[in-house]
């Protein structure tokens, strides 16, 4: 693609997926702007796992060392009953044999800050809320709440589960009677979550924060619809999460409460978060030091502004693009965090889109439609696999008969079968085709990424042309 043919990309949403796409477009010299409705980034969230499906990409981007230094290496999850009786630990160490990479647990706010640094500050416009989007034959225009407008060739909805971009796109499709019935249904959810991160803790009082590997501790309620977990970080803090598994009745009540307390968001205000803190503060913890701790102890050690309550929706939409609109991340597939795939799938979306935008021959409507179709064709099967995995994990931690059966099987699974199941989770390990390739490691060859292959072929061709030109 010549410099004149590179599309201008408008990205709505400065979450992890939107920032990843911006960072990759930056490296491929594709013009872009990111719009974020929030005026500032709040350091909210718990922790997330970063492993073999992302670490090679971070090597390509030159941020692997930052991730490894900020995260805490950990290859086990230690689960317990509410009585603190332990289950057999889940061992993820075989991933290094399969891929050459281990697994790091990193506080989500710290991870976000690393990603934010990959995008020039003037290209991320905070406090810019999208009010409307209009489209003609060759351009799309974003109309903002401050009366500014921006024109581009592609608009990317990376603005979460309640995406404004998806809403505008679906309105167009619905008017043409082209929107599938299932995409018109409300976004379902079956649980809510309380998340946060403590202040820096004294190792003398909390020896868990001094252990060299991340201590990922999970707890399952015996007679209550809750699960809760704690993760130690390199920064000597504890990230934590409490999940309330809802019935259909309580799901509806929680939905109504959300609309009373916030606007177009999956996050509640301070009062509902405090209520959930009160409801869960006596839940017991085993931090490995022989003392009796509860979740309330962690709440008391967490700055109030770092505690938030969020909804955990689950849905994969059928329609991901139309015209010059395309969706990514939670805007087109919202996964339960139980499987640990949500942020990973969003960033894989960004990689696929960036690879395909890189190889676009022109910015015509036909070429844009074609790359969007290729994007969904590549990503949809991987997303569905993650969705099914997340559903199984979500069921396993529910206080239900099915959940107890799944948990029984998982904790008594033969080691060979456990390793086989882990192998499936690391099969999709794409790379960025227009950045220097990272040689494959480990014993398991990843699934081929067509977008990566296309971008790699063009990248290598251009490198050869540059070398020939330099030698003349």
TrEMBL record:
Keywords: FAD, Flavoprotein, Membrane, Oxidoreductase, Transmembrane, Transmembrane helix. PANTHER family: FAD-BINDING DOMAIN-CONTAINING PROTEIN-RELATED, FAD-DEPENDENT MONOOXYGENASE ASQG-RELATED. Residues 8-177, 307-385 form the FAD-binding domain. The lineage of its organism: Eukaryota, Fungi, Fungi incertae sedis, Mucoromycota, Mortierellomycotina. Belongs to the paxM FAD-dependent monooxygenase family. It comes from Mortierella hygrophila. The chain crosses the membrane at residues 7-25. This is FAD-binding domain-containing protein. GO terms for molecular function: FAD binding; monooxygenase activity. SUPFAM superfamilies: FAD/NAD(P)-binding domain.
């Amino acid at each position: 693609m010549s410099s004149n043919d590179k599309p201008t990309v408008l990205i709505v949403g400065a979450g992890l997926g939107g920032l990843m796409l911006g960072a990759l477009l930056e490296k491929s010299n594709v013009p872009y702007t990111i719009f974020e409705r929030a005026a500032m980034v709040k350091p909210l969230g718990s922790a997330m796992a970063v492993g073999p499906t992302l670490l090679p990409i971070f090597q390509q981007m030159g941020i692997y060392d930052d991730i490894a230094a900020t995260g805490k290496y950990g290859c086990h999850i230690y689960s317990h009953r509410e009585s603190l009786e332990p289950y057999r630990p889940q061992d993820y160490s075989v991933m290094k044999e399969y891929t050459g990479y281990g697994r790091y647990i990193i506080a989500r706010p710290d991870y976000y800050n690393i990603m934010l640094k990959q995008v020039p500050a003037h290209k991320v416009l905070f406090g810019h809320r999208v009010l409307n989007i209009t489209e003609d034959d060759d351009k799309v225009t974003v109309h903002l709440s401050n009366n500014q407008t921006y024109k581009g060739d592609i608009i990317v909805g990376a603005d979460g589960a309640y995406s404004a971009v998806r809403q505008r796109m679906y309105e167009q499709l619905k008017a043409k009677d082209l929107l599938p019935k299932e995409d018109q249904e409300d976004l379902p959810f079956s649980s809510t979550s309380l998340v946060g991160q403590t202040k820096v803790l004294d190792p003398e009082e909390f020896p868990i924060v001094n252990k060299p590997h991340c201590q990922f501790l999970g707890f399952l309620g015996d007679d209550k619809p809750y699960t809760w977990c704690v993760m130690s970080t390199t920064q000597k803090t504890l990230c934590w999460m409490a999940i309330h598994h809802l019935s259909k009745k309580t799901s509806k009540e929680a939905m109504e409460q959300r609309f009373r307390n916030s606007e177009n968001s999956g996050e509640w205000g301070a009062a509902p978060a405090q209520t959930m803190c009160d409801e869960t503060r006596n839940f017991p913890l085993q931090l490995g030091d022989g003392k009796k701790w509860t979740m309330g102890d962690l709440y008391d050690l967490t700055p109030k502004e770092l505690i938030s309550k969020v909804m955990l929706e689950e849905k994969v939409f059928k329609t991901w693009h139309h015209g010059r609109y395309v969706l990514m991340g939670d805007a087109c597939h919202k996964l339960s965090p139980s499987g640990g795939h949500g942020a990973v799938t969003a960033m894989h979306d960004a990689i696929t889109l960036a690879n395909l935008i890189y190889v676009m021959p022109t910015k015509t409507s036909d070429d844009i439609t074609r790359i969007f179709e290729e994007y969904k064709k590549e990503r949809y099967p991987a997303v569905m696999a993650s969705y099914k995995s997340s559903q199984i994990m979500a069921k396993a931690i529910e206080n239900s008969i099915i959940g107890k059966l799944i948990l029984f099987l998982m904790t008594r699974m033969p080691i060979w079968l456990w390793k086989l199941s882990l192998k499936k989770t690391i099969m999709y390990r794409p790379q960025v085709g227009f950045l220097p390739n990272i040689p494959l490691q480990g014993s398991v060859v990843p699934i081929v990424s067509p977008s990566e292959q296309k971008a790699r072929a063009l990248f290598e061709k251009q490198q050869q042309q540059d070398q020939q030109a330099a030698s003349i």
